[in-house]
Write the structure tokens for this entry.
Amino acid sequence: MFRLSLKEVSDDDFLIVKKKYQLTLKTKVILLGKGIHTGIKSKIILHPYNKGIVFKKGKEYLKLNPFKVINTLASTDLSLVKTVEHLLASLFLNKIDNVLIEVLGLEVPILDGSIFYFNKVLENNFFILDKKAKTLKLKNITLDNINLNLNYKIFESDILKIYCIQRDLKRNRYFLAYYDEGMSIYPAKTFGYINDYEFLKNNNLANGADFKNTLILSINKSSDFFYFNNEIAYHKIIDFMGDIFTMQIKNIKATFVLINPNHNLNNKLARVIFKNILRIKKNLGLKNF
């Protein structure tokens, strides 16, 4: 079904090859579990594919891009399925840029609330396609005119770097995290405040949240339980990766500084960058970016 034109490569060369060429899955993957917002059991099947990242539900197909996101309140949702950000973040980290995601349910399973189990079934489960991967190099970008400058700074870089400063508004604390493409990222869990429970319930959210899949925080405790330091900020980086990968570009060269990011702002930034890509593509007369 797919062509491979590469000779055997060593383990040390894998990252270089995975960035240079497009990848799909070697074998299909089935994931089962409940949705964190719907609370309903669902199932997704990830199939080997060679036409980008496409979601399928029944007879309907949806090719991913930032403008296909229809909701960003507490998750990143498409018309076919809710809460895609953790799955997309894991695809991004594993450099898999071709997969057919078959949806049997309303929401991508939350699993343990992090990307641990997504990574477990994706790492080393890849097939190298005879197609070159795209690279996006961002230079210093001014975001003042689109009202994103207070939350995002973008600087030129030869590799991907992400800094996150996350303020805990409930107790006026700050969490800091850093990632670059040579690092393994902590499988930080999603989090929420028990004090927000009423709001979430009124908006039909967090129906599947529990102590196994969510860090449940309280403003009344002198300290909260975390699996590691700055877990909140690391989870925000994971969300950012998933939201920015709606552009379907796995090789990004830039330094991002995130200041209290969220799904809504992440999607706005992805749309701005993607729109500029399409404009440049049109001006250059390119059929394939």
In short: Residues 4-11 have pLDDT under 50 and may be disordered.
